[in-house]
């Protein structure tokens, strides 16, 4: 069983259009699906679930859609604090977060503080996240520490670099399995460093329709693969 499953949750708008619904209703259905999906993963013994909720590039969408999405995330997190405490699930939010509303920032801080004691289940939401920016900020942090004399050139290795990435909040930084819904077959600037040896699973199913049977299908596909990590076995 993978320890860390990452999700690119694609297809909310297409799902809503096909159903004759508003885009906002598609995003609401997608948020509900994430809650179900993470709960199913945790029941199966998966430790970390990370979801690509909002990319840095998503700021280019219409202002109305972006405003609704920010409002939805805030409502979702605020209303589920007690649920995550009851389920003993830690919630972390990673990303630049420089453009998001103050009210959402306060809610993020509230849910992270309310759940940071839990160790066995970890949900990570990537909001205003860019894999390239994640690598750049890690490099800048290392350069700054070097200038301060805190580290030397010979200290810089994979382990040190990974400690500077935003995924340093979780015990298992590199996903074992990445799932992307809606038929697209690209990683779209998500976890560029962390996905080096991640197994990829693409499905045409739109995210709101990605149910337990589809999760099992993805996990079975993962379990049938031979993970070599670049080595001969």
UniProtKB/TrEMBL annotation:
Family per similarity comment: Belongs to the UPP synthase family.
PROSITE patterns: UPP_SYNTHASE (PS01066)
HAMAP family the UniProt entry points to: ISPT
Organism annotation: Microthlaspi erraticum
UniProt xrefs under Pfam families: Prenyltransf
Pathway in which the depicted protein is active: Protein modification; protein glycosylation
Cofactor list: Mg(2+)
Top-level taxonomic group: Eukaryota
NCBIfam families the UniProt entry points to: uppS
Name recorded for this polypeptide: Alkyl transferase
């Amino acid at each position: 069983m993978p320890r860390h499953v990452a999700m690119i949750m694609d297809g909310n708008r297409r799902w809503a259009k096909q159903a004759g619904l508003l885009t906002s209703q598609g995003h609401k259905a997608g948020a509900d699906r994430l809650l179900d999906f993470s709960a199913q993963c945790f029941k199966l013994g998966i430790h970390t679930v990370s979801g690509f909720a909002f990319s840095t590039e998503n700021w280019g969408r219409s202002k109305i859609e972006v405003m609704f999405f920010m409002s939805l995330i805030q409502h979702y997190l605020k209303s589920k604090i007690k649920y995550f405490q009851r389920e003993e699930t830690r919630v972390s939010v990673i990303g630049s977060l420089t453009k998001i509303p103050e009210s959402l920032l306060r809610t993020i801080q509230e849910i992270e503080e309310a759940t940071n004691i839990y160790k066995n289940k970890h949900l990570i939401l990537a909001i205003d996240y860019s894999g390239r920016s994640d690598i750049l900020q890690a490099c800048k942090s290392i350069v700054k520490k070097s200038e301060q004399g805190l580290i030397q050139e010979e200290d810089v290795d994979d382990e040190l670099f990974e400690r500077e990435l935003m995924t340093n909040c979780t015990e298992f930084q590199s996903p074992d399995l990445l799932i992307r819904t809606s038929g697209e077959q690209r990683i779209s600037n998500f976890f560029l460093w962390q996905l080096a040896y991640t197994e990829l699973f693409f499905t045409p199913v739109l995210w709101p329709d990605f149910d337990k049977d589809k999760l099992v299908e993805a996990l079975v596909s993962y379990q049938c693969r031979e993970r070599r990590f670049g080595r001969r076995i």
